[in-house]
Design goal:
about 20% helix; 11-stranded antiparallel sheet; alpha+beta
Length: about 270
Amino acid sequence: MDKRSIAIYTNEDRYSEETTSNLIAKLEAAGYAVTRELTEDVVLLICIGGDGTTLRAIHSYDFPEVPIVGINTGHLGFFQEIRPDQVEDFIEDFKAGRYTLQPITAVQAEVETADERFLYKGINEIVVRGSNAYSTHLNISIGDSFIEKFSGDGVLIATSTGSTAYNYSLGGSIVDPRLKLLQATPIAPMNTTAYRSFTSSILLPPDLELVIEPENERHHETRIINDGNEHMFIDVKRIRVELSDTVTKLVRFESYDFWNKVKTKFL
Protein backbone atom coordinates (compact mmCIF):
# COMPACT_ATOMS: atom_id res chain seq x y z
CA MET A 1 0.00 0.00 0.00
CA ASP A 2 1.38 3.40 -0.99
CA LYS A 3 2.04 5.94 1.70
CA ARG A 4 -0.47 8.71 2.15
CA SER A 5 1.07 12.14 1.73
CA ILE A 6 0.81 15.26 3.86
CA ALA A 7 1.72 18.64 2.41
CA ILE A 8 3.42 21.33 4.51
CA TYR A 9 3.30 25.08 3.93
CA THR A 10 5.39 27.26 6.23
CA ASN A 11 6.63 30.80 6.55
CA GLU A 12 10.34 31.60 6.75
CA ASP A 13 10.39 32.32 10.46
CA ARG A 14 13.15 30.47 12.33
CA TYR A 15 10.76 29.01 14.88
CA SER A 16 8.47 27.80 12.08
CA GLU A 17 11.40 26.14 10.28
CA GLU A 18 12.46 24.37 13.49
CA THR A 19 8.86 23.23 14.02
CA THR A 20 8.72 22.02 10.42
CA SER A 21 11.86 19.90 10.78
CA ASN A 22 10.51 18.28 13.93
CA LEU A 23 7.12 17.69 12.33
CA ILE A 24 8.57 16.07 9.20
CA ALA A 25 10.54 13.58 11.27
CA LYS A 26 7.48 12.61 13.30
CA LEU A 27 5.19 12.35 10.26
CA GLU A 28 7.63 10.10 8.44
CA ALA A 29 7.99 7.95 11.54
CA ALA A 30 4.19 7.63 11.58
CA GLY A 31 4.22 6.35 7.99
CA TYR A 32 3.36 9.48 6.02
CA ALA A 33 5.19 10.86 3.02
CA VAL A 34 5.83 14.60 3.30
CA THR A 35 5.68 17.00 0.36
CA ARG A 36 5.54 20.71 -0.38
CA GLU A 37 3.18 20.18 -3.34
CA LEU A 38 -0.52 19.34 -3.45
CA THR A 39 -0.40 16.06 -5.32
CA GLU A 40 -3.39 13.73 -5.75
CA ASP A 41 -2.39 11.52 -2.83
CA VAL A 42 -2.21 14.40 -0.30
CA VAL A 43 -4.76 13.89 2.49
CA LEU A 44 -3.92 16.96 4.59
CA LEU A 45 -2.32 20.39 4.24
CA ILE A 46 -0.48 21.61 7.35
CA CYS A 47 0.20 25.35 7.62
CA ILE A 48 2.94 26.34 10.06
CA GLY A 49 2.95 29.99 11.12
CA GLY A 50 0.20 32.44 11.98
CA ASP A 51 -3.16 33.30 10.44
CA GLY A 52 -1.42 35.15 7.58
CA THR A 53 0.48 31.99 6.66
CA THR A 54 -2.73 30.00 6.42
CA LEU A 55 -4.36 32.67 4.25
CA ARG A 56 -1.33 32.75 1.94
CA ALA A 57 -1.44 28.96 1.65
CA ILE A 58 -5.13 28.96 0.76
CA HIS A 59 -4.61 31.56 -1.95
CA SER A 60 -1.36 30.00 -3.20
CA TYR A 61 -3.08 26.64 -3.69
CA ASP A 62 -6.24 28.31 -5.09
CA PHE A 63 -8.64 27.32 -2.29
CA PRO A 64 -7.75 23.61 -2.16
CA GLU A 65 -10.29 20.90 -1.46
CA VAL A 66 -7.89 19.00 0.82
CA PRO A 67 -8.48 19.61 4.57
CA ILE A 68 -6.22 22.16 6.27
CA VAL A 69 -4.83 22.30 9.78
CA GLY A 70 -2.58 24.93 11.35
CA ILE A 71 0.32 24.77 13.78
CA ASN A 72 0.60 28.14 15.51
CA THR A 73 4.06 29.67 15.64
CA GLY A 74 2.65 33.17 15.21
CA HIS A 75 0.62 35.44 17.45
CA LEU A 76 -3.18 35.43 17.26
CA GLY A 77 -3.74 32.05 15.64
CA PHE A 78 -7.50 31.83 14.99
CA PHE A 79 -6.99 29.41 12.09
CA GLN A 80 -4.33 27.43 13.94
CA GLU A 81 -5.47 24.40 15.87
CA ILE A 82 -2.21 23.03 17.26
CA ARG A 83 0.72 24.28 19.35
CA PRO A 84 4.21 23.01 18.42
CA ASP A 85 4.37 20.99 21.65
CA GLN A 86 1.18 19.12 20.64
CA VAL A 87 2.53 17.63 17.40
CA GLU A 88 2.65 14.02 18.61
CA ASP A 89 -0.92 14.15 19.95
CA PHE A 90 -2.08 15.74 16.70
CA ILE A 91 -0.58 12.96 14.55
CA GLU A 92 -2.12 10.29 16.76
CA ASP A 93 -5.56 11.92 16.68
CA PHE A 94 -5.42 12.46 12.92
CA LYS A 95 -4.44 8.85 12.21
CA ALA A 96 -7.26 7.65 14.49
CA GLY A 97 -9.82 9.94 12.81
CA ARG A 98 -10.56 11.83 16.02
CA TYR A 99 -11.42 15.13 14.34
CA THR A 100 -14.16 16.96 12.47
CA LEU A 101 -14.07 19.22 9.42
CA GLN A 102 -15.25 22.80 9.76
CA PRO A 103 -16.44 24.17 6.39
CA ILE A 104 -15.62 27.80 5.60
CA THR A 105 -17.51 29.41 2.73
CA ALA A 106 -15.53 32.06 0.89
CA VAL A 107 -16.85 35.51 -0.02
CA GLN A 108 -16.47 36.63 -3.61
CA ALA A 109 -16.58 39.93 -5.46
CA GLU A 110 -17.39 40.19 -9.16
CA VAL A 111 -15.94 43.47 -10.43
CA GLU A 112 -17.48 44.87 -13.61
CA THR A 113 -15.69 47.53 -15.63
CA ALA A 114 -16.65 48.97 -19.00
CA ASP A 115 -14.78 46.19 -20.80
CA GLU A 116 -14.20 43.23 -18.48
CA ARG A 117 -15.28 41.28 -15.43
CA PHE A 118 -12.98 40.07 -12.67
CA LEU A 119 -13.64 37.65 -9.83
CA TYR A 120 -11.88 37.72 -6.46
CA LYS A 121 -12.39 35.46 -3.45
CA GLY A 122 -11.57 35.82 0.22
CA ILE A 123 -11.69 33.58 3.27
CA ASN A 124 -11.85 36.53 5.68
CA GLU A 125 -13.11 39.49 3.75
CA ILE A 126 -13.50 41.65 0.66
CA VAL A 127 -12.73 45.35 1.09
CA VAL A 128 -13.88 48.09 -1.31
CA ARG A 129 -11.98 51.36 -0.94
CA GLY A 130 -11.04 54.45 -2.90
CA SER A 131 -7.58 55.94 -3.18
CA ASN A 132 -5.67 56.93 -0.05
CA ALA A 133 -5.96 60.60 -0.97
CA TYR A 134 -9.76 60.82 -1.30
CA SER A 135 -12.94 59.67 0.37
CA THR A 136 -14.97 57.27 -1.72
CA HIS A 137 -18.68 57.50 -2.54
CA LEU A 138 -20.44 54.17 -3.01
CA ASN A 139 -24.06 53.55 -3.95
CA ILE A 140 -24.99 50.44 -2.00
CA SER A 141 -27.88 48.06 -2.64
CA ILE A 142 -28.85 44.84 -0.90
CA GLY A 143 -30.50 42.51 -3.35
CA ASP A 144 -32.80 44.72 -5.43
CA SER A 145 -33.19 47.38 -2.73
CA PHE A 146 -31.11 50.55 -2.80
CA ILE A 147 -29.88 51.28 0.74
CA GLU A 148 -27.73 54.39 0.71
CA LYS A 149 -24.98 56.45 -0.81
CA PHE A 150 -22.04 55.66 1.47
CA SER A 151 -19.28 58.23 1.94
CA GLY A 152 -16.07 57.44 3.78
CA ASP A 153 -12.97 55.32 3.37
CA GLY A 154 -14.79 52.21 2.21
CA VAL A 155 -16.74 49.10 3.14
CA LEU A 156 -15.55 45.71 4.38
CA ILE A 157 -17.61 42.59 3.73
CA ALA A 158 -16.58 39.75 6.04
CA THR A 159 -17.44 36.10 6.36
CA SER A 160 -18.24 34.68 9.78
CA THR A 161 -14.70 33.34 9.91
CA GLY A 162 -13.31 36.79 9.09
CA SER A 163 -15.39 38.51 11.76
CA THR A 164 -12.48 38.32 14.21
CA ALA A 165 -9.96 39.82 11.77
CA TYR A 166 -10.01 43.33 10.21
CA ASN A 167 -13.77 43.44 10.75
CA TYR A 168 -13.32 43.31 14.52
CA SER A 169 -10.74 46.12 14.40
CA LEU A 170 -13.36 48.28 12.68
CA GLY A 171 -15.90 47.67 15.45
CA GLY A 172 -17.76 44.88 13.67
CA SER A 173 -19.40 41.99 15.48
CA ILE A 174 -17.76 38.69 16.35
CA VAL A 175 -19.77 35.93 14.69
CA ASP A 176 -19.71 32.22 15.47
CA PRO A 177 -18.14 30.55 12.39
CA ARG A 178 -20.97 28.00 12.31
CA LEU A 179 -23.28 30.79 11.08
CA LYS A 180 -23.35 31.23 7.32
CA LEU A 181 -23.71 34.95 6.65
CA LEU A 182 -21.98 38.10 5.44
CA GLN A 183 -21.24 41.19 7.52
CA ALA A 184 -20.84 44.61 5.88
CA THR A 185 -18.88 47.02 8.09
CA PRO A 186 -18.21 50.68 7.23
CA ILE A 187 -14.66 52.05 7.22
CA ALA A 188 -14.47 55.62 8.59
CA PRO A 189 -18.01 56.64 7.52
CA MET A 190 -18.80 60.33 7.09
CA ASN A 191 -21.76 61.80 8.95
CA THR A 192 -22.22 65.51 8.33
CA THR A 193 -24.95 67.79 7.00
CA ALA A 194 -23.64 66.92 3.52
CA TYR A 195 -23.08 63.17 3.92
CA ARG A 196 -25.02 60.54 5.86
CA SER A 197 -23.69 56.98 6.05
CA PHE A 198 -24.49 53.93 8.15
CA THR A 199 -22.12 53.61 11.09
CA SER A 200 -22.73 50.04 12.24
CA SER A 201 -22.41 46.62 10.65
CA ILE A 202 -25.14 45.06 8.55
CA LEU A 203 -25.66 41.28 8.66
CA LEU A 204 -26.86 39.58 5.49
CA PRO A 205 -28.31 36.09 5.00
CA PRO A 206 -26.43 33.73 2.66
CA ASP A 207 -28.79 34.18 -0.29
CA LEU A 208 -28.50 37.98 -0.58
CA GLU A 209 -25.81 39.89 -2.46
CA LEU A 210 -24.41 43.34 -1.78
CA VAL A 211 -24.18 45.52 -4.89
CA ILE A 212 -21.76 48.47 -4.83
CA GLU A 213 -21.63 51.10 -7.57
CA PRO A 214 -18.77 53.60 -7.10
CA GLU A 215 -19.27 57.17 -8.22
CA ASN A 216 -16.51 57.76 -10.77
CA GLU A 217 -17.18 61.30 -11.88
CA ARG A 218 -13.57 62.25 -11.09
CA HIS A 219 -12.12 58.99 -12.40
CA HIS A 220 -10.71 58.10 -9.01
CA GLU A 221 -9.41 54.60 -8.49
CA THR A 222 -11.33 51.84 -6.74
CA ARG A 223 -9.38 49.28 -4.75
CA ILE A 224 -10.61 45.73 -4.19
CA ILE A 225 -8.75 43.90 -1.42
CA ASN A 226 -9.35 40.20 -0.81
CA ASP A 227 -7.57 38.89 2.29
CA GLY A 228 -4.88 41.55 1.93
CA ASN A 229 -4.38 41.10 -1.83
CA GLU A 230 -4.94 44.48 -3.50
CA HIS A 231 -6.31 45.16 -7.01
CA MET A 232 -6.76 48.65 -8.47
CA PHE A 233 -9.29 49.78 -11.08
CA ILE A 234 -10.43 52.97 -12.77
CA ASP A 235 -14.09 53.49 -13.70
CA VAL A 236 -15.62 50.45 -12.00
CA LYS A 237 -19.28 50.16 -12.96
CA ARG A 238 -20.46 47.63 -10.41
CA ILE A 239 -19.22 45.25 -7.72
CA ARG A 240 -21.35 42.30 -6.67
CA VAL A 241 -20.35 40.74 -3.36
CA GLU A 242 -21.85 37.45 -2.20
CA LEU A 243 -21.01 34.12 -0.65
CA SER A 244 -19.13 31.85 -3.03
CA ASP A 245 -19.66 28.19 -3.86
CA THR A 246 -16.03 27.66 -2.81
CA VAL A 247 -15.69 25.90 0.54
CA THR A 248 -12.44 25.39 2.47
CA LYS A 249 -12.32 22.73 5.20
CA LEU A 250 -10.42 23.23 8.47
CA VAL A 251 -9.55 20.26 10.68
CA ARG A 252 -10.87 20.66 14.22
CA PHE A 253 -10.09 18.34 17.12
CA GLU A 254 -12.16 17.55 20.20
CA SER A 255 -10.53 20.29 22.26
CA TYR A 256 -11.51 23.06 19.81
CA ASP A 257 -13.82 25.70 21.29
CA PHE A 258 -14.29 28.90 19.27
CA TRP A 259 -15.62 31.01 22.13
CA ASN A 260 -12.87 29.90 24.48
CA LYS A 261 -10.40 30.96 21.78
CA VAL A 262 -12.13 34.35 21.53
CA LYS A 263 -11.84 34.76 25.29
CA THR A 264 -8.15 33.87 25.41
CA LYS A 265 -7.21 35.97 22.38
CA PHE A 266 -9.20 39.14 23.08
CA LEU A 267 -9.98 39.31 26.81
